[in-house]
Design goal:
Layout lengths: L13 E6 L2 E7 L5 H12 L6 E2 L2 E3 L3 E4 L19 E2 L13 E4 L5 E2 L3 E4 L12 E5 L4 H8 L14 E9 L34 H25 L2 H8 L6 H23 L5 H85 L8
Antiparallel strand pairs: 1-2, 1-11, 2-10, 3-11, 4-5, 5-9, 6-8, 7-9, 7-10
Length: 365
């Protein structure tokens, strides 16, 4: 039997995408596409792909990720301030099998976006830069993602995430991960706030941002009101003498603090019930979908067990028939042996009787 061999070149470098559907091991063609592989590896080391989603799934063709916005129209690179760079093509790198990893950007350009093929796609040869391939049984995890439900725009209804990326073999030891830019106004920069468990799915951060924005807006309005106050109004409010400039300035500060405190207290009176109801309805829809999938999985498992039970019963019946046939054969053999034994004893008896009578002819045994 002839052995099937791949025409793809040898790989050098390995990363593992840890996704919600399982690990995906990717080996890199760092000799044939060095610039693209270096861009991919450095972005992995910097945590660029962490928590990104697979935003596009084309049935029996490919799955796509690498866009931090999750829309599929944006990508970054480590070259020229994040701009796309020139594509790299090689005569031995072609879409001849499933599991090929290539850049998703077009027009002979590359960035952070990439896709993994689900079949042979030779029409894409020399149109997208190939820089890796999925290896081993982890291709089954790619197929799991490909089987997810999508909408009319090929976007998954429940997009799976890349939790993190582990660089197992780094073919570029000289890579130094870049530091994230600090926000002005502090030496250490502003750290992202930790997510709170508000039972509002992934919209918890949006709710916190909305409250923070509302708070800043009210504070700004209060300061504008304070600036527009006239000194006469301030005098009447605090009942101070018009001849004391010092008292007036102190009164202005007190009024401003009181107004800001009042506005901040009003923040707690904001009704977020409509927002929370929306989030609860979304959570309920997701729970119903999960229950539906669990029921479907149980039915499939039950059907599979029934098929296996039938196969086992057939094997058991076949074995039983073989045992019955063997018993019949043994019985027949024993009967034949007994028949031969009785015939032989009968022949010997006949022969002895003839000798006693004086007959000389031979007996047939």
């Amino acid at each position: 039997m002839s052995q099937i061999t791949s025409t793809l070149p040898k790989t050098r470098g390995k990363v593992v995408l840890v996704t919600e559907c399982g690990d995906i091991e990717i080996e890199l063609f760092s000799r044939e596409a060095p610039k693209t592989c270096k861009n991919f590896v450095q972005l992995c080391l910097e945590g660029f792909y962490n928590n990104q989603i697979f935003h596009r799934i084309i049935n029996e063709q490919f799955i796509q990720s690498g866009d931090p916005t999750g829309q599929g129209n944006y990508g970054e690179s480590i070259y020229e301030e994040g701009k796309a760079f020139e594509a790299e093509y090689h005569s031995r790198l072609k879409f001849i099998q499933r599991g090929i990893v290539a850049c998703a950007a077009q027009n002979n350009l590359c960035d952070s976006r990439f896709f993994i093929t689900l079949n042979k796609l030779e029409p894409l040869n020399f149109k997208h830069t190939i820089f890796g391939q999925v290896i081993g049984d982890t291709m089954f995890n790619v197929m799991k993602i490909a089987e997810l439900e999508v909408d009319e725009k090929d976007r998954p209804v429940y997009p799976p995430k890349i939790l993190k990326v582990d660089v197992i073999v780094n073919p570029f030891p000289d890579i130094i991960p870049r530091k994230k830019k600090l926000i002005k106004g502090g030496d250490e920069g502003k750290k992202r706030k930790a997510k709170k468990d508000l039972n509002l799915l992934s919209f918890a951060d949006d709710l916190e941002d909305f409250k923070e924005e509302d708070k800043n807006k009210k504070k700004k309005i209060s300061e504008e009101k304070f600036e527009n106050l006239k000194e006469e109004d301030i005098k009447e409010e605090v009942k101070v003498s018009s001849s004391s400039n010092t008292d007036i300035s102190e009164s202005k500060e007190e009024i401003a603090e009181n107004m800001i405190d009042t506005d901040l207290k009003e923040e707690n009176l904001i009704d977020y019930s409509a927002v929370e109801e929306k989030f609860k309805s979304l959570k309920k829809a997701i729970d119903e979908r999960k229950e539906e999938l669990n029921t479907k999985s149980k039915q499939e498992a039950k059907s599979y067990l029934e098929i296996q039970k039938q196969k086992y019963q057939k094997k058991k019946d076949k074995k039983q028939r073989q045992e019955e046939a063997l018993q019949k054969f043994q019985s027949f053999k024993q009967n034949l042996k007994n028949t031969n034994s009785s015939w032989k004893s009968h022949s010997l008896k006949f022969k002895s009787n003839k000798k006693d009578n004086g007959d000389d002819y031979e007996t047939i045994e």
